[in-house]
Each structure stands twice: as structure tokens, then as C-alpha cells.
Amino acid sequence: AKAREQELVLFHGTKHSVVQSILANGLDPATGSLSPGVWLGPTCAGAHRYASRHGGPAAIFVVLACPSINSGDSERSRDVWRMGTKDGALPAYVVMYQSEGDAEVVRTVGKGLSRRASCSLNESKRQTKCS
């Protein structure tokens, strides 16, 4: 019996230096730094913890995922997925940042196409302004 596939919105944290490769080629399970696979989690905070451990500029991808156990994907714990296939994870947005106050948001529209916005966070007013 075929396992039911799900559609999920998950997060992937990474170092800034691999963003252009992901935008051009998608998320590649063969290049995982923890172990083979693309690791996706349910919270932006979890992705940030992983992305910021490298030091320097970081990035968080918002990923549309359709994990399939039959295709080699596996749920590791509490909605954390290790995607074993490239086809099951589509990066939809990426937030690139250096510090808590500045970010650049890129919405991927299709292979090689993107729309950028610069964002700044005003901590005292708890507002984010993008242009």
C-alpha cells in the first residue's frame, strides 16, 4: 500500500555561500552537511539555529515539501524531515541575513527567476519594513 503524501511548508537553514547554488539547482540531497539528505523543519527558529552556527551571513529557505516515504524521505522527529529526493522539496522563498536587524527576502518565481526585497526590522516598534 502506498503511503499518503503530505503537502507541508517547512524551513531549511544554511550558510549564505550556498544560496546561489540552491536558487539555480534546487535543494540537493547529495550535499547535506549533517548527513545525506535535505533537512527541513517546522520552525523558522530551528532553521535559524542551524544557519547561524556557521557564523557570518546566513539564509533560511521557506520550502514547499511533499515528503514521500516511498521515495526515500523520512520523518526523523516531530515534523523534522530528511528529504532523500530532490523532487519533493521546492524552495519558494529565501531570507538572507547578517544580523537580527537586516534581511533580504527573495521569492523564487521559477528556475533562475527571483524577486528581491530589502527588509529592516525595527525592534522597538516590532515592525518589519520591506521595499
Summary tags:
single chain; about 130 residues; mainly beta; 6-stranded antiparallel β-sheet; 3-stranded antiparallel β-sheet; 9 strands; globular
Our count of helices gives: 2
The rounded distance between the terminal residues' Cα atoms is 49 Å
Main sheet properties:
6 strands, antiparallel
Instruction: Give the overall pLDDT as a whole number.
Output: 75
Instruction: List the uncertain runs.
Output: 109-131
Strand portion, in percent?
over 45%
**Spatial shape:** globular
Radius of gyration, rounded? 15 Å
Query: Which structural category do the helix and sheet elements fall into?
Result: mainly beta
List the helices and strands and how they pair.
Blueprint: E1 8-15, H1 19-25, E2 38-40, H2 44-52, E3 58-65, E4 74-77, E5 80-83, E6 89-99, E7 102-110, E8 113-122, E9 127-130
Antiparallel strand pairs: 1-3, 2-5, 3-6, 4-5, 6-7, 7-8, 8-9
